[in-house]
Design the sequence.
């Protein structure tokens, strides 16, 4: 019997979508206003879900406090009120699209979650635009 637990979190961050190897015109054609050289920001919402068997001793799949601590340490502390392009090492050479951000977050959290658990991360860039990654 598998159950999924989820924890919501949020962080605020700036970024610019562009490729260093493209001209401004190429970047502008693909990324539009998200290519603003002065960056732009989002109030990101995050849902991290862990699926696994219920521990018969604790009744938990995983202690949600433990999951909350992981998210705080590995995501919120590292991304909140940061410029993703300039302040977060993972994006020095990786375009910080929502798709790339969710994969980076998933990889950070995956390192801290036991392998027998399934992990899913949903990242909302806006209330209507979101991405999901399950490590597939």
Sequence:
């Amino acid at each position: 019997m598998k159950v999924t637990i989820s924890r919501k979190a949020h962080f605020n961050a700036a970024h610019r979508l562009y490729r260093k190897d493209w001209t401004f015109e190429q970047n502008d054609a693909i990324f539009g206003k998200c290519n603003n050289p002065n960056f732009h920001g989002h109030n990101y919402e995050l849902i991290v879900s862990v699926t696994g068997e219920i521990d018969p001793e604790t009744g938990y799949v995983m202690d949600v406090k433990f999951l909350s601590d992981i998210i705080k340490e590995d995501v919120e502390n590292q991304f909140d009120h940061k410029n993703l392009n300039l302040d977060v090492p993972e994006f020095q050479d990786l375009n910080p699209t929502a798709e790339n951000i969710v994969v980076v977050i998933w990889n950070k959290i995956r390192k801290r979650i036991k392998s027998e658990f399934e992990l899913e991360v949903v990242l909302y860039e806006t209330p209507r635009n979101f991405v999901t990654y399950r490590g597939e």
Notes: The chain has one domain: 2-15+41-133.
